[in-house]
Amino acid sequence: MTGSAIAMMIIICALVWGGFLTVFSVVWRIEKRKKTKNRAS
Amino acid sequence: MKETFTSRWSLLLAALGMAIGTGNIWRFPRVVAQNGGAPFLIPWFLFLFLWSIPLLIVECGMGKKTRMGAVGSFGCMNPKRTWMGGFVGFCTLAITFYYCVVTGWCFRFCLASFLDIISPGGGIPGGGLWGAETTVYWTAFNATKWQPVLFHLLAILASSWIIYHGVVRGIERANRLLIPTLFALLVIAVIRAVTLPGAAAGLNFLFEPRWRELLNYRVWLEGLSQSAWSTGAGWGLLLTYAVYMRKNEDIIANSFLAGLGNNSASLLAAMAIIPTVFAVLPLETARTVVTDTGPVSTGLTFIWIPRLFEQIAGGRIFLCIFFLALSIAALSSLISMTELGTRIVMDFGLSRRKGIVIVGLACFCLGLPSALSPTFFQNQDWVWGIGLLLSGLFFAVTVIGYGVERFRVELVDSTDNDIRLGKAFDIAVKFLIPIEFVAMLTWWFTQAILSFDPERWWHPFRTFSVGTCIFQWGVLVVLLIVLHGPIRRLLFERDVTVPGSATGEGA
Asked: Would you tell me which of A14, B32, B201, B370 could form a disulfide with A18, CB atoms 3.0–4.6 Å apart?
């Protein structure tokens, strides 16, 4: 594989999978916080 | 009282199941290869935010606000636009009719690849895919006629059986099993593909940045079209699932996750298929094969993939994994399509059971011509595939009529949501979506006039003509306008407590 193809692969994968996993982890944390809040109340 | 999804994760898995379909595994790798690899991925990713996600948000907002299916929700937003909901609903159902056939093909090949594992000699009837001349195998399968019809029926029965159990015990349970399995299978397939000797050539083909390709308008329009079709935005499917959202459920983050999850699955599929092709075949042959459309676009998936897997270690198992992933993707989308039809029927006051019977029978009868005739199949794919772009526009037009800012303040940037979008959403709905629609429609119609059917592009009874689109859409719109009054009466005057009916722009 050429260097530019490797760089492009990293960028695309980071954008697509990274984007998905970032939003997923944000939602996960929000849901966890809501659960803890509900239990406390 | 409508059922609701029991948790946010259940809704998300259902939304992912809706978005991830055969288009991700079947169409995406071929279209990437045909459009130069990496340069195509840039517009494809960009248009996720400029077409698909804004429309997914609109769908979610409309479904959550009105708590009615595709037809009723348009009527709630503006009584004069009920016919637009009818168009969106019928367009997706028309796709469902032949999508059941496609799902049947996936089931048939999945079964054949499974039988080839348990009976390596090919002694069991229905197997024999392994080592077969796949073009002959595909032709023989279609020539029997009863086989495509039988598997078409099986696909309808499978999705109907799931939605018969309702939202929680049917849709939710099925997607909890199907979607994690699908992602696991895709990851296994990618690991196998990229570890094959020679796979680097495929990855190089897929990711080599050929920047000059970005100057080609075709790459941009293909990226936009793939994003529009693959995510399910503007089909009314997420709207249907949003009807079953819990009261304070988020819209924005969920729509982003559905869109990004869809693109993640597409990228996984491309990274599983393209390196496999390049690992097995010589470079030039590989380039031809990854762009091969074949009969009814089956070239790469149903003709080449079985041949390629024969040449890799553990090929029988990986072939079965591939077709299982394809079948799961097809079924998870078919569930949402069947639910869309059933929800529309239920909005007219019928029970879920009656709705399923009506939609199931319609799918079987109206899907039969596609199961028996590839020409009819291709015509329906062309007409209603382009029709989906019109459906997307209708969503935008309805929200523009309602007031984009009002829609955003009431639903998108409300306290229920974890993220705020601001005016970017207004710009996307008001300007970008209509402009993108015009660009895509002009592009596809120009192709029909100049290359698909230059002699008779105006003819209403040709497979890929502009005339056939205008004719079939025209018949549908006229019927919907004629039946507008009775449809509205059946939907709204039957039940005066329909939520949202008193808050619509024209109400």
From this structure: A14
